[in-house]
Batch of 4 targets.
Target 1
Amino acid sequence: GSSLYARDRFEELERNCVAYANIDMPGMRGAADWSAVTAGPDFFDLAARTVLDVTGQRGVSAGRIRAWDQSFQNLGISSLFVWSSQLPPDSPYRTGGGAMPWWWHTEADTAEFCDREVFETDARLYMAALVRLLADEREAPRVETLWTEVNERLLRLEADLSPVLDLSGLRGLLQDGLSAWKAKERSLESSLHAVRLLNRVCYSAREAHLQDWVNGNDFIPGLSEAATVLRKEMPARKRAIVVHYAITQRNRLLLLAEELTHLAALRA
């Protein structure tokens, strides 16, 4: 559903969307944990403060989340929330070693497993965060936080890929761009532009107009996937194919990094 929405409303999303909020598993019976903050790095501060204000719980980052219902990240659109309430670790309703209840997406998923108070808390949380984002320009996405996340991840990948691929030029370009970005005041428009580019580095391995159904990979998924595969023993021909893929991913990221550096050099 989200991939078709992103495909068919591509122009509208590209021009007008600031962020998206995915409301997954709201109002579950037994849910009492709001501490896993599912926002991206650029919206973590806003989301965590809202969780604290609405629930009294201190949030921690849930890490990178990319699943089938998050097709907007490929366009560079940030996530504000992916889900909110969860079952606590000791809940008897948990299944499969995860936070989902045993009845989720089954015929047993009926109204008796909903909790009105949890629903209301989830609704207050989402509405408070959205109102804050839309009503106050000071709640704009934190470009520097997201940019720093990209640079730190790339530094780790450089060590993993150094035997077959040189990432120093790419990493240096992004580091210089971040330094230039910090040196000037930025408009909301330029901040949103930077976030779009950085999210495309963070979350996808393909261009924005192509749906990238990547799932479960780390930040900078194309290079991360190549690094994971190259740790394994394989015939020389297969290894050459993976190295080729890694080089094309680096080249894609170089184009995005050059655009970011150019943006950082502008006045506003």
Note: The beta strands are 19-24, 36-37, 60-61, 78-83.
Target 2
Amino acid sequence: MQLGFVGLGKMGSSMVERLLAGGHQVAAYALSEESVRKVEALGASGASSLAELAGRLSCPRSIWIMVPAGDPVTQVIDDLLPHLSPGDVLVDGGNSYYKDSMRRHSLLRERGIGFLDAGTSGGVWGLRNGYCLMVGGDEETFLRLEPALRTLAPPGGYARMGSAGSGHLVKMVHNGIEYGMMQAYAEGFEILKHSPHGLDLARIAALWNQGSVVRSWLLELAENALRQDPGLDRHEGYVEDSGEGRWTILEAMERDVPAPVITLSLFERFHSRRPRSFAAKMLAALRRQFGGHAVRTR
């Protein structure tokens, strides 16, 4: 099928490459001219503006948006709208907040334009392994985009979750779960690292992936990281978050659902950004005040 593609970051460019390899025609646009040139070399039709991108597509158009959540998505949609026609379809494949996707679906429907929210998981490995696609929106629109979805995903790796917003809701919770899994692995490996046995952590990660109940792709990635840098000396223990964990916790609060593991895993990320925590200093000061315990000073 013919598809427009906006956003050529690490995932976006790999998705375009996978679509091209699957025989689809892709017109691509990104703010980075270099990124556009790279996918042109693979067979994509590069555009220098969103207006040009829309003009390169036959009606009814299908355009996949792969840019950061929030204002960038809004800006792309606003800039595309003057160049779209009733019957066109937009797909937001980024990590947008699901309530924003519900709102965008309603606004676009008033213009006769379809909208799908496609939660996309797979990271930089998606080009080789395929992307897991969690899609929300009208079934008719979903079926129209299915040829592209089938190409992007591994076998059984895409599905319609339900009405508008459901795809990004499922992806949001998926990422919240990911926070908890990553935190559990991180804590477990730290315990092993501080054992008196001089353990080979990469070897343990590889072993656990052979039939154990904690085997996973994340554990494969842990093995890769530990083989490349056994002590993780090239890494700083500063962990960002991109919003999905926060949204997952907000959703849990709205629905009165206890989610202590996901919540604490997010808070641990906050903790990683405070190497000289005032709270830790307060704890030390209180121990000295009530018990006369020694305090390390700078």
Note: The longest strand covers residues 114-121.
Target 3
Amino acid sequence: MPSGAVRARWSLLLGTLLWTAAIAAGLVGLWRYDFKRGAAAAVPDYAAFADEAGRAGDQAHLVMLAHPRCPCTRASIAELARLMAQAPGRLVADVYFVQPPGTADDFVETDLWQSAAAIPGVRVWRDRDGRAAARFGAETSGQVVLFDAAGRRRFQGGITAARGHEGDNAGRAAVLAALDGDAPADTPVFGCGLGNAPSGSEERPCPM
């Protein structure tokens, strides 16, 4: 076989190997990104501020802290809708969308705000300067905290299985179990940091 043909074959083989390695590295990086946990909240077992945040009478109270421009949080809002549909009349939910200092009121009025507001039983709020997030010790968008009617914490964590992933997950199951009287539970939360989520278009990727 002419030497030129041999070199061409080896070049093709080397190119294929390099291309395969690049694809594999990209898939590993994507997997690590999807399953990279956010910082957990530091919520006390009993929250005197549960009433302050809007807990309703004899119902359990769920609070979600979210960044209005975190694309990962679309999945959290979708899972919240499924959760509310599975537990009609059993809890009230409040979603606080962080409004960073110096931003206009319409900064929070994204598609995430509209989607959350459309869920029956859910109220949405502007979290000016991230005060509610600080009160709940939340650092990651999509952080959920559940209190029972007495204001005791029954759950904290995320209600998605990974960043931006909808579907059955341990967090949603734990909230439903807590409503049935199971022991308090914690799960990982996946999302942008509430202080460093993207501030431009919702289509921008989350920061690493």
Note: The first helix runs from residue 3 to 34.
Target 4
Amino acid sequence: MRLLLPSLLLIAPLAAQGPVSDLRIEYDRMAIRPLWPGFSPESTALAIYDGHSTWLFRHPAPPAGFVRDVEMPDTYVMSGRHTDVRANTHVELGGVPTATLLLPDHPVSLTRLAAVLIHEAFHVYQARIHPTWYGNEATLFTYPVTDSAAQQLQRLETDAFRRALLPTGQASCWASRAMALRQARVRRISAEAMSYERGNDLNEGLATYVEWRASGAPLDSLIPPDGFAPDAMRLRAYAVGPAQAFLLDHLQADWIGALTRDSMLTLDALLGRAVAPISCRADFTTHEIDSTGALAGRESAGVLTARAELRRSFLARPGWTLVILLPDATPLWPERFDPLNLTPLADGEVLHQRHLRLSGERGRLEIQDQWALTVPAGAHPLFNGVRSVLMAGLAEHPTLTITPDSLLVRGPGIEGAFTGMTVVEAGQQVTVRPR
């Protein structure tokens, strides 16, 4: 999944075809470039939501609701957003792996948009050819975000990678320093935490590498000078992962072939081998090291405080509150969540800030573009099930449809269906609970 930071103005339905058609042309221009051996973005099914309609390209079996567009070849369109087109990601749409893109609500170049779509198309390729290239998202909830020493090493390592990409002629020396800092961090954090990083470097990092190659964006803009907070370890993969790939382009021929032939290899293992013979090593000043350590200490100490404040402010939102309570024996289970837009809290709670889909014996619940607080049913925040979901600050009373066999819950960004449940209301709180 690729977040789109700058974006494009949404357009009215009759004017939508122009920007979508232009975007497809720019995508096809990029797709013919040799971006990665065996990757064929020009043959990947694409779905684009423009704010009013969902456009489908190169899809061999369009789902119900799509009709053929009369002006663009191999194109189908439906009014509204298809239920499976929820983010910049890749999904099974009508049984076909499909790269999806949401056109945003503020301007960005077609080149930038097309490159993000290339990123998502590469995920379709990865899922088919390299299904082990991913990080175990269970580790997201246990990553050592309060370890200030690890955070200092992470910040120095990230900045060493950033300096290696600058046009100063010291790429090899700073790459060597970055790998030395990573080795020190490997000794500091758990094997599970490092495995999570390495998996995300392969998954999101290589997709971003292909995206950057497609767009021709300058390498010195890949890693932000401000670096990454302790709990931004997944976002960091979008910068540090491709940084390692671009450095391997400079330091080791046929690294892609080696990586694809050996499923156990990682980017940092390859880069470590490449820098091993290098004698030079750039370094930070004492002031830089000390100031980074002080910053890391403040950041790590502030993580839990910031999370507690985020929870408090969420629960204090004015408006309606919807609570879904499940029996202990029949929790809901995660089908899909957005790891880039959630915050782990104390006691296993998780604040989801964009998308969540749950299902179980008692029903199903999907939340899109709403915040929701989940309470775990077991030891893991999500993967042992969820026993309650709370949505605060709703602008209107949820719509409830009650029949002898089911209870339907709807609201802006909320859709649920349950069995064996009843509704209790108190003030502005609506609680769906077992009968």
Note: DSSP finds nine helices and 19 strands in the chain.
